[in-house]
Design goal:
Elements (H helix, E strand, L loop, with lengths): L1 H10 L3 H16 L13 E2 L7 E2 L2 E2 H18 L2 H18 E2 L3 E2 L2 E2 L2 E2 L2 E2 L7 H7 L2 H11 L21 H6 L1 H14 L11 E2 H18 L2 H17 L1 E2 L2 E6 L4 E4 L2 H13 L1
Antiparallel strand pairs: 1-2, 3-6, 4-5, 7-8, 9-11, 10-11, 11-12
Helix pairs in contact: 1-2, 3-4, 3-9, 6-8, 9-10, 9-11
Length: about 270
């Protein structure tokens, strides 16, 4: 709500609100709150420096952040904010979306019996995956040249202050991130919650529609429309809106937020 308030003020020409919003969005994206390999945001951080997250990823907060980044990028022509928006959308559509069946609710924090086990790295792991030049550049950009920041033995990636914009466009760092992402895909992955929530899918519809309009991404708008079709077909029972779908059937009468977010989503789309 606070970011949305600043966003609305910035859109109306409030320069201090615009600057506060841009600084907050950039720092959120550069720190440990964001997954720098797949683009999704974690649920929250457990320290005061936005360094180490609780590694669960949720549909609702990524859906809410997407239009803030996309519309801020369009308003300011900021390439970094645009790349963050594109990363959120890529994660939503690549990891959470099932065409014709809406968006999953969340991805667990734990993997292979350890919180963050899917996401953190040992320095030697990264060094083996990258060339010498890639490792030197990557370590300097993402903190592997310093002491471990996760349980005194591993590194959770975060961008060094002041480097976020240039790092996104650096071909060496881009290649390194792709190599780590491919290696991570071979790990035991955290579980994805199969349930589809009406309210959170509605937030995803609105987020994709607004972001797609802001950045000219028709594919995002099409995904939003397909998700609305899923809600129409699968989350009505006996003429009433339902709150959740468990993969087999719709369950539980809708709550106020289901109705409110769905109305907002339809208007945005």
């Amino acid at each position: 709500p606070l970011l949305a308030f600043l966003h609305d003020r910035a859109a109306s020409g409030d320069t201090p609100a615009r600057d506060m919003l841009a600084a907050t969005l950039r720092n959120m994206a550069a720190g440990g709150l964001r997954d720098h390999l797949d683009g999704g945001f974690f649920r929250y951080t457990v320290d005061g420096h936005w360094g180490i997250p609780h590694f669960e990823k949720m549909l609702y907060d990524n859906a809410l952040l997407l239009p803030l980044y996309a519309e801020s990028a369009a308003r300011s022509n900021d390439r970094f904010l645009r790349s963050v928006a594109e990363g959120i959308a890529a994660w939503l559509l690549g990891s959470m979306y099932q065409p014709g069946h809406g968006f999953a609710a969340s991805i667990d924090a734990d993997a292979a019996g350890r919180e963050g086990g899917f996401h953190v790295w040992r320095r030697d792991e990264v060094e083996q995956l990258l060339s010498a030049d890639e490792f030197a550049r990557f370590a300097a950009a993402y903190g592997l040249d310093g002491p471990p920041n996760f349980e005194a033995e591993s590194w959770h990636l975060r961008q060094r202050e002041g480097t976020c914009a240039s790092d996104q466009e650096d071909p060496v760092l881009s290649a390194a991130r792709l190599k780590l992402l491919a290696a991570r895909a071979r790990r035991v992955a955290p579980a994805t919650a199969p349930k589809r929530l009406t309210s959170w899918n509605a937030l995803a519809i609105e987020g994709l529609a607004r972001a797609g309009l802001a950045l000219g991404r028709e594919d995002w708008v099409e995904a939003a429309a397909e998700t609305l079709d899923f809600i129409r077909k699968s989350l009505w029972a006996g003429g009433d809106l339902m709150a959740a779908h468990d993969g087999q059937q719709a369950r539980f009468p809708a709550y106020l937020d289901d109705h409110a977010y769905l109305l907002q989503a339809v208007l945005a789309l």
